[in-house]
Design goal:
By secondary structure, the protein is mostly beta strands. Helix content is about 0%, strand content about 35%. The strands form 11 sheets. It has a 4-stranded antiparallel β-sheet, with no helix packed on it. A 4-stranded antiparallel β-sheet has the order 17-16-19-20, with no helix packed on it. A 4-stranded antiparallel β-sheet has the order 26-25-28-29, with no helix packed on it. Strand 22 and strand 23 form a beta hairpin. It is elongated, with a radius of gyration of 40 Å.
Length: about 400
């Protein structure tokens, strides 16, 4: 019976402890078995096993069997096919410890010894490839949203958010010198009075089994107060005027708006069905190129109703609102062209209009409507029709 000793060796920043056991054979360990390969912190890293020092009748041959153990270095199992003196760490090893069993054989028999376990094998720590982005209007009362960005590294990766309030210079790139906002740990944040005059960032921390990394988004523009930065508000709806007959030109107003100036306006004419379409014009067809304050009616408009969508935009381009976002009659609804359809009973000469439906164009075989009756509530009038 030979008793094998106990030896400890320091290696690459951590202790490797080599344990020997009682071996009832002629070949035996004289020195500890070593694993060379560093701190084992990356997949794809190669471990190399030393055979240790043995005494006994020569020649002595060596066989290797690598084992994968739990994070405590226990409950080990053999790694299929891993029987050479080297072993390349893979994704299955992440979170585990690795050992190698060396079996020495000579003419008199065989003996084996197990190395100490490596440190826990870590995967790739999270690496940010696309920084987080903040979206939303930077005005008091508005909600900002932050993305996590794009990351590589050992999966799964979890994300934590922290909103910070920075000065006029936007603070450090990672937001570390900005004021942390208590409780603001979701991906969205509602801007309040304390944020006015500040610039915002969101810090995103990505974490996996290998470690964590924190990066910051770009700083937003300076947060404006409600009086400075609220979206334009429509107080009088846009209104269309003009004869609703083929070849005639319709014009529109922008309506009346309140909000920080300057406010610019964009126009989009749309062609709707006989029912006038939805109040927001969402089921109407945009008319190609019709983006000015006026529009000349064409044959494609005959039998259709026309609307115009007015978009009011703050001078800094950050906040805008469509003039047709609410149902008909609401303060921001656009106004369908209100002109009358001629009663067929009065196609020859003059006569009252049949109804007040919004701007339905007139086209009768062999006839051309050249005028439109006024609203009866405004004093009355008649459509004038003539044959070509």
């Amino acid at each position: 019976m030979l008793h094998l000793g106990r030896e400890e060796a320091g290696f690459a920043g951590f202790q490797l402890e080599f344990l020997a056991a009682d071996l009832d054979c002629s070949a035996h360990v004289g020195q500890g078995i070593t694993i060379d390969g560093g701190t084992f912190d990356l997949r794809g890293f190669t471990l190399t096993a030393g055979s240790g020092s043995w005494s006994g009748t020569t020649p002595i041959s060596f066989a290797y069997a690598w084992q994968r153990c739990d994070s405590a270095g226990a409950n080990c199992s053999s790694i299929s096919g891993a029987t050479s003196s080297t072993y390349v760490l893979g994704s299955s090893d992440v979170g585990k410890r690795i050992r190698v069993r060396v079996t020495a054989t000579n003419a008199d028999g065989a003996a084996s010894a197990l190395s100490a376990a490596t440190g826990v094998v870590a995967g790739d720590v999270p690496v940010n490839t696309v920084e987080p982005v903040i979206s939303g209007s930077t005005a008091e009362g508005q909600t900002l949203s932050g993305s996590s960005g794009s990351w590589t590294g050992q999966q799964p990766i979890t994300f934590a958010f922290q909103w910070v309030r920075c000065g006029a210079d936007g603070g450090a790139a990672d937001g570390s010198n900005c004021a942390f906002i208590s409780g603001a740990t979701k991906s969205t944040y509602l801007l309040g009075g304390d944020d006015v005059g500040k610039r915002m960032r969101v810090r995103v921390t990505a974490k996996n089994s290998a470690g964590s990394k924190t990066v910051g988004s770009n700083a937003t523009q300076t947060v404006l107060s409600k009086s400075q930065g609220g979206p334009p508000v429509n107080t009088a709806e846009p209104r269309i005027s003009g004869s609703v007959v083929q070849g005639a030109t319709l014009t529109t107003t922008a309506g009346t708006w309140t909000g920080a100036t300057p406010i610019s306006f964009g126009y989009r004419w749309v062609r709707c069905g006989s029912d006038g379409g939805k109040p927001d014009g969402s089921n109407c067809s945009s008319i190609s190129g019709a983006t000015s304050t006026s529009y000349r009616l064409t044959s494609s408009d005959v039998g259709r109703r026309i609307r115009v969508r007015v978009t009011a935009t703050k001078g800094d381009g950050r906040l805008e609102r469509n003039g047709d976002c609410r149902p008909t009659g609401a303060e921001r609804d656009d106004h369908a062209a209100e002109r009358r359809e001629v009663d067929p009973r009065h196609q020859r000469g003059f006569g009252p209009a049949a109804d007040r439906r919004p701007g339905r164009l007139l086209s009768q075989p062999g006839q051309l409507a050249i005028g439109a009756a006024h609203d009866p509530d405004q004093g009355g009038g008649h459509a004038r029709v003539r044959r070509p």
